[in-house]
Amino acid sequence: MSPTPAEALNDLVAEFDLLDEWEERYRYVIDLGRELQPLPTSDRSEVNKVRGCASQVWLATEPQPDGRLVFRGDSDAHIVRGLIAILLRLYSGRRPAQILEFDARAALSALGLSSALSAQRSNGLVAMIQRIRRDADALGRASETLGG
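RE: above sequence
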């Protein structure tokens, strides 16, 4: 069974706590991004593009038969790929209700990302979270309508 978003956050906090300085954490975030599978060209579409990011960012949402949502993402910026990897660990494979109940701002604060990122990067991160939440809300409503 996959961890809850809170458990995934606790794991990330523990990983970040092992790194003393923000420069090391920054490199770690970039390393997380290197582990992401690149998005196929077909997913680098206008539909999947996240608005409000300084870099090119794409997020693809794939509803699963059991109601969970799987997210895949990519960016042309190394640090943003890492931020996407963090969001995927927190949100991918979860049900819409779990996604909507999770306090993303508290998570970013717990990881120290709120204070460590530039305003532009922070705005982009918020835009990615809003996109994930919007998709979860829409797909959750659709599932309820269909009796799921």
